[in-house]
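Pipeline run #58 for the internal structure catalog. This entry was flagged by the ingest filter as a single-chain record with no existing model, so it goes straight to prediction. Upstream metadata was stripped on purpose; only the residue string is passed forward. Reviewer on rotation: M.T. Logging verbosity set to normal.
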Amino acid sequence: MSKILVDTIDTRSGTSNMTIGSSNTSQITLKSGATLTNFPANTPAFHATLSSTQTITNNTFTKLQIDNEIYDTDGCYDNSTNYRFTPTTAGKYFVYGCSMTGGSSGELDFSGSALYKNGSQQTEHFTDFRNNRGGSSNFTFTSIIMDMNGSSDYAELYGRMKVNAGNVNIQGGTNGQTYFGAYKIIGA
């Protein structure tokens, strides 16, 4: 095995691509603790939870007021007014959300979560209990990959539940049962 000792490896004038290894190379090994830098990041990114229970209208999609930021890498999530993610970098984003419904025991017909882009529904996932009414709570997760233009496109999380009688609530609190988040997909 040969060893080359250098401080910088660069391309020659007039070229912009550098290849490490050949068609026979299947692995490049770094020393333990080495750090690779200048790679693209999965940002902007955020994750937020609903801090307290939100009452919604029965059988109506309602925007969830996800107000407790866990992280927001680029300040692109509005957690106090519009409760929306407006990324400042164009690209494809993995957007996800989960709502936990809470109603009267045995009265839950169905519950669902939906992701909206620019005010239009993009995806919906729900659990239907009409043949066997559900208990007081249910988690509904939804996700989608959205193209975002990096300036005006925004994403929001909505929740919906239908009860035969009783409370119509989306559960919030310290356990993060209801949450919303997104991150940029590298290379997409």
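catalog note: Residues 41 and 84 are 21 Å apart (CA to CA).
catalog note: The chain has one domain: 45-184.
status: ready for reviewer M.T.
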